[in-house]
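Lab manual, section 2.4: Encoding a predicted structure.

Procedure: take the sequence of the chain (268 residues), apply the prediction step described in section 2.3, and record the output as structure tokens. A sample record is shown.
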Amino acid sequence: MADSTLRQRPMAGTEKSETSTPASSVKPKAAAKPGLGVLDVIRVLLGVAILSSVASYFVTGNSLVWNKRPAWTRWNKLIAIYHGHNRIMTEEELRKYDGSNRFLPIYIGVNGSIYDVTASPQFYGPGGGYHVFAGRDSTRSFITGCFDEDYTSDLRGVEEIYMPKDLDLPPKSGEDATEVEKKAARRLWKMRRERAAREGKVKAQQTIAHWKKMFDGGMGGKYFKVGAIKLSDDWKEKRGSIRTLCKRAVEQRPETNKWSKWTEDDEE
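Recorded output:
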């Protein structure tokens, strides 16, 4: 009896195999579709950048970035940032940055500050209309407009460009004027002239501030401050005598003063 029971017991794994799904009915797994990887994105962006650069060069003729200079392409600006826009140079050192060496930036000086104008070599480089400013402090010429002769930082007497011409000479008194009247007229003329000189100096500083603002981040940010000029110990002696106004500056002076009715009582 036990033997027959053993004969009828199915073998291990037989029942499972009979109830399992036939091999022919198993569906093969679909192949995984390739996705867009990081390298593919980099290749696309790099291709677009190359095509843009090629198109820019053919359109502009000389630029790979559509005549724009991002901050990361301006190595000289990165150097200025590294130095904190506070590089100190003597006037002799500044002269090396006049654009004659194409491996150096182009600097100009305005009232003791140094600015980088490398972005416009057509103006400030050799042969440019403003090349006279490169490598030196020509603040006086920014006020007078005499670019060919006032390439100096000496501003003594420059306020005269804003002073009326009729204050150059003291007033003439009539023959019947008393000594008291003559002295009073001369004192009034002197006070008018002093007041005109003070206002002229203020206007000169306003003109300088305008130019410094333009070079310090102006023109779309292509110009920027680099540092300052360190004057020599004998810079006052080197200036010499006070310069006279150039012809162009004289022609710009107003003819009459606005204080023709101004009296000593108006003086504060």
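Check your result against the sample. The two ends are 140 Å apart (CA to CA).
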